[in-house]
Design a protein that fits this description.
The chain has 696 residues and is an alpha+beta fold. It is 34% helix and 24% strand. A hairpin with a 3-residue loop joins strand 13 and strand 14. 34% of the residues are buried.
């Protein structure tokens, strides 16, 4: 008969842990949180020291009854929820939901944590049982209450002023702003022309020509900004002699990457595997909780998946050293593996994300894992092994070639020792090997073959992808490892942002919500303010700041901002806007309404007349191809563009608003970008300052 009860979060862990502990232990799951703030109200008593009002989550009554029965039979209870703030808070809630206060006083209730679900880790945790860490609990309570205050005070205002079903969140609102700011930057970007000039030279005694890039003059680097400058350089070099001025050879080292944190795993899985942040976390959770491996049963394949730390335990470091030395040789082992330098607080309670056993190679488990689960495990396994390996080495050659006063350069690198690259190549790293086919020296004789001048235009900042957004959120100190995936999931689910390919685009609805938040709640969507709140929560975890102090300082300002916003925004008319379209069925002037997917035209005679039409906002500009109206449209996922109202018969379409004017150079449409009019044909490059842009 079981004498001890172990309560974990997820049912997926139960079978794995039960196998490790034997018949003296009963293992049960709480299925996540069992208590929370009520959905029907704020759930925080702002009049009485901001005391939270926790209730049992609907549907958890039967589960709690089963846990209470098990508690009565057990001599000791071990609360084994996840090793982070959230897990600590769940253990604390279980303590009160199961009425374990008396057993706590009798020292029969313990908190245990393990960073990996392996036999050694679980048994070791029982030897190091402790009390619940109230600093961690309080940090989580503060986060939960801050998020609840923002959501429950601001969301009703969005419902009233824009439309029902919208939401605001402390982290999601600033994330939306970051994406909107990037979109504005892209839309206002003015491409600038520049040229590159390559020269092809024949080396005496060599079959292949070499290609050198224009650098500048002997006095320093020079840029070529237009065709006239490119022509001037080429004309100045007619009949010039080319000679090798300098050859530098050196060795370059490329260090191994650090093992994965939550953020870097999400970024790399997005780039390499095209996984969303939510998919990455879902699969990583499965790998952590346990997978059925033939001959071993349920096994946790990776360590805990929510971490900011790149630290690796001594045991894991020794395991990696043995594996690398045996499989690759002593030269491939790097003993002094550094850790991530970061000015921000690192949640270092557990290690980096790594395999629990390196001998479970990807090849060994491939047949027993679904494809996507295998691909993620392989990525984690390779990254960890590579992180303990020596640097790759390259032999590099840099050559300067002179012709009169002008300087051209070429460089190459060849891999001399592959090091960690024999296991893992990061997504952003391309093939770097680019060896010179000709042996060049100061004595090499060169002869001119041809020039290759090329026109280019500077590119705007890239649209955010989930990977690049996670990277920026981490660098800005917005949110924590556990919040990135749900935050991105929420703004996608609310249709504030859409995903096309890998890119994220703001929808019209997202712009409206962001503009209102910036106008009425500038502090909430301020990046620095949100980052400072995260720092305060870290201070609560450290025990240097009281959690109710954080909440008490936050709520009055929020309350005042909501009251002010209700008055300032009260004049906004939410009546239906009358359009210039006539109803085909009854002749009334149709009105503009908002639906789940944006605006549409509806007959005001509803319910007698139920006629509706798509709504297209007219720009007042005629189509340059057919002369009909150019209207603002949206892609299937909600991204704005401008096109002919006669589509699909007319295929005119651009991403920026057309000005109605045509390019004097090539006849294409001129688009409004920032304070300039820019030719729609990027190859043309025509642009001019215009007052029209201020009206866009």
């Amino acid at each position: 008969m079981a004498k001890y009860l172990v309560i974990v979060e997820s049912p997926a862990k139960v079978k794995t842990i039960r196998k490790f502990l034997g018949s003296s232990y009963e293992v049960m799951a709480s299925n996540g949180h069992v208590r929370d703030l009520p959905k029907s109200s704020l759930g925080i008593d702002v009049e009485h020291d901001y005391e939270p009002k926790y209730i049992t989550i609907r549907g958890k009554g039967e589960l709690l009854a089963g846990l209470r029965r098990a508690v009565k039979k057990a001599d000791k209870i071990y609360l084994a929820t996840d090793p982070d703030r959230e897990g600590e808070a769940i253990s604390w809630h279980l303590l009160y939901a199961l009425k374990l206060e008396e057993k706590l006083e009798a020292k029969k209730v313990y908190r245990i944590t393990f960073n990996e679900i392996t036999k050694n880790a679980v048994k070791e945790s029982l030897k190091n049982a402790r009390e619940i860490d109230m600093n961690l609990v309080d940090a989580q309570q503060a986060r939960r209450m801050l998020d609840r205050m923002v959501g429950y005070r601001i969301s009703p205002l969005l419902w009233e002023k824009i439309k029902r079903g919208l939401s605001a969140g402390r982290v999601q609102s600033v994330t939306l702003r970051i994406i909107c700011d990037r979109e504005e930057e892209i839309n206002a970007f003015i491409p600038e022309e520049y040229w590159t000039l390559d020269v092809f030279l024949k080396v005496k005694g060599e079959r292949k020509s070499i290609c050198a890039k224009y650098y500048g003059t002997k006095d320093g680097k020079q840029s070529i900004v237009n065709k006239e400058q490119a022509d001037a350089v080429m004309n100045s070099l007619k009949g010039a002699e080319y000679s090798v001025r300098e050859v530098k050879k050196s060795e370059r080292m490329k260090k191994a990457p650090l093992p994965f944190t939550t953020s870097t795993l999400q970024q790399e899985a997005g780039k390499v595997l095209n996984f969303s942040t939510q998919k990455t976390m879902r699969l990583a959770q499965q790998l952590y909780e346990g997978v059925d491996i033939k001959g071993e049963g349920m096994v946790g394949l990776i360590t805990y998946l929510r971490t900011d730390s790149t630290r690796v335990s001594q045991e894991a470091a020794e395991m990696a050293a043995k594996f690398i030395t045996a499989g690759y040789g002593e030269a491939y082992l790097h003993r002094d593996t550094g850790e991530k330098k970061n000015n921000q607080k690192i949640q270092d309670a557990h290690e980096a994300i790594r395999p629990t056993d390196l001998n479970r190679t990807p090849a060994a488990v491939k047949e027993q894992l679904p494809r996507d689960l295998f691909r993620l495990y392989q990525l984690i396994w390779k990254r960890f092994v590579a992180s303990r390996m020596s640097a790759a080495k390259y032999d590099t050659t840099s050559v300067k070639i002179q012709a009169k006063e002008q300087i051209f350069t070429l460089s190459s690198s060849s891999l001399s020792f592959d090091g960690f690259l024999c296991v893992y190549r990061p997504a952003e790293e391309g093939e770097e090997e680019n060896a010179l086919t000709a042996a060049l020296s100061r004595e090499s004789e060169l002869s001119f073959e041809s020039f290759d001048p090329r026109q280019h235009f500077t590119q705007p900042p890239a649209h955010y992808t989930e990977s690049s957004l996670v990277k920026d959120l981490e660098e800005l100190g917005i949110g924590r490892p556990s919040t990135y995936a749900p935050t991105i999931g929420i703004i996608l689910a609310r249709h504030y942002v859409v995903k096309e390919g890998r890119n994220l685009y703001v929808t019209e609805l997202g712009e409206v919500v962001n503009n209102m938040m910036k106008q009425a709640f500038p502090a909430i969507v301020d990046v620095n303010f949100t980052a400072s709140m995260e720092a305060l929560l870290d201070s609560v975890e450290e025990g240097t700041v009281k959690w109710k102090t954080v909440v008490a300082n936050f709520y009055p300002d929020l309350d005042a901002a909501v009251d002010t916003a209700e008055k300032l925004l009260a004049h906004i008319s939410i009546e239906d806007e009358v359009s210039d379209e006539t109803c085909d069925l009854c002749g009334r002037q149709m009105v503009i309404k908002y639906g789940p997917h944006g605006r549409f035209l509806a007959c005001p005679g509803f319910p007698e007349c139920r006629n509706t039409k798509p709504y297209f906002e007219k720009t007042g500009v005629s189509c340059p191809k057919c002369g009909k109206d150019v209207v603002m449209k949206k892609t299937r996922k909600g991204r704005k563009y401008y096109g002919c109202i006669d589509n699909p018969d007319c295929d005119f379409m651009v991403w920026q608003k057309p000005s109605g004017e045509t390019c004097p150079k090539c006849g294409s449409a001129l688009l409004i970008k920032g304070n300039k009019l820019v030719c729609a044909d990027q190859q043309c490059g025509y642009q001019v300052l215009s007052e029209l842009s201020n009206k866009a």
